[in-house]
Amino acid sequence: MKPFKLTGLLALGLAMSFVATGCKHKQPPLTHIPNSGLNGNGAANDNLGNAGTLTNPTEPAPVGGGELANFNPDDMAQDRAALAPETLYFDYDSSAIKSSEQSKLDAVASALKSDASAKLLVEGNCDERGTEEYNRSLGERRALAAREALANDGVDASRVATRSYGEDKPADPEHNAAAWAKNRRDEFVLLHPK
User: Fold this and answer.
1) What is the pTM of this model?
2) How far apart are the C-alpha atoms of 87 and 84, rounded to whole Å?
C-alpha cells in the first residue's frame, strides 16, 4: 500500500508543478507593416538600434500605405485646419473605428470627392501607455483603418498616405485618462500641390 500512496503523491506533486509553472506561451506572430522599421520576422531594419528602440524617436514612422500612396506629403502644401474637426478618436489599445466616428469619415470623404486635386495624409497617434514600438505599430494600424474606411466610402486609396507618430505628438501632455482619450486619435491633413 505504501508504494501506491507514494506514487499518488508524486503524481499529485508533478501535476501541481505543471499548474504552478503554466504553459510556455508562444509569441504571437508580428504583422509586417510597410515602412514600420520592423521586417516580417520582427527583426529591426535600419532605423532601429540593437536594443530594439527607435534611433530617432522624434521622427515619425515613414509614410506608409504600401504601394498605394505614390506621393510624398512633405512635398505638398498641408492644410491641417481644414479637417481638424474630423479627428477620429479610438478606444484604448484599439484600431477599430467606432460607429460614432463614422460621420467624421463621411465628411473627410466628401471633402476629397469635391476636390479631385486634393490628397490626404492620415496621422495615427496613441497615448503614452505601451512601448514605443508597439505605439508606432498601433498608430499605423489606426491610420490604415481610416484609409480603408475611406476607400470603402469611394475614395481612391492611392490619394491617401498614412504616417504614425505613436506617442510622440500628444494632443494633451497630461498623464491621466482624459488626456489619454484625446491622444488616441487619427488626424487628417488635407494636401494640395504646391
Assistant:
1) 0.67
2) 6
Classified by CATH at the fold level, domain 52-192 comes out as 60s Ribosomal Protein L30; Chain: A; (3.30.1330)
All cell numbers assigned to 114? 469635391
Banded model confidence at residue 184, pLDDT cuts 50, 70, 90? very high
Quote the cell numbers at residue 185. Answer: 486619435
Give the Cα separation of 186 and 83 in Å (integer): 11
Question: Whose CA is closest to 46, among 24, 25, 62?
Answer: 62
Specify whether the CB–CB gap between 125 and 140 falls below 8 A.
no
Phi, psi of 38 (to 5 degrees): -120, 140
> Alpha-carbon distance 4 to 70, whole Å?
74
CB 124 within 8 A of CB 64: no
Question: What confidence tens digit (pLDDT) does each residue in 89-127 have?
Answer: 999 999 999 999 999 999 999 999 999 999 999 999 999
Burial of 106 (0-12, 13-18, 19+ CB in 10 A): middle
Report, in angstroms and rounded to the nearest whole number, the Rg of the chain calculated over CA atoms: 23
Model pLDDT, residue 145: 97
| Residue range 54-70, pLDDT digits in tens | 434 445 544 455 456 78
Domain spans of the chain? 52-192
Q: What is the pLDDT of residue 66?
A: 46
User: 181 Cβ partners below 8 Å, 6+ apart?
Assistant: 89, 127
Phi, psi (rounded to 5 degrees) for 103? -65, -30
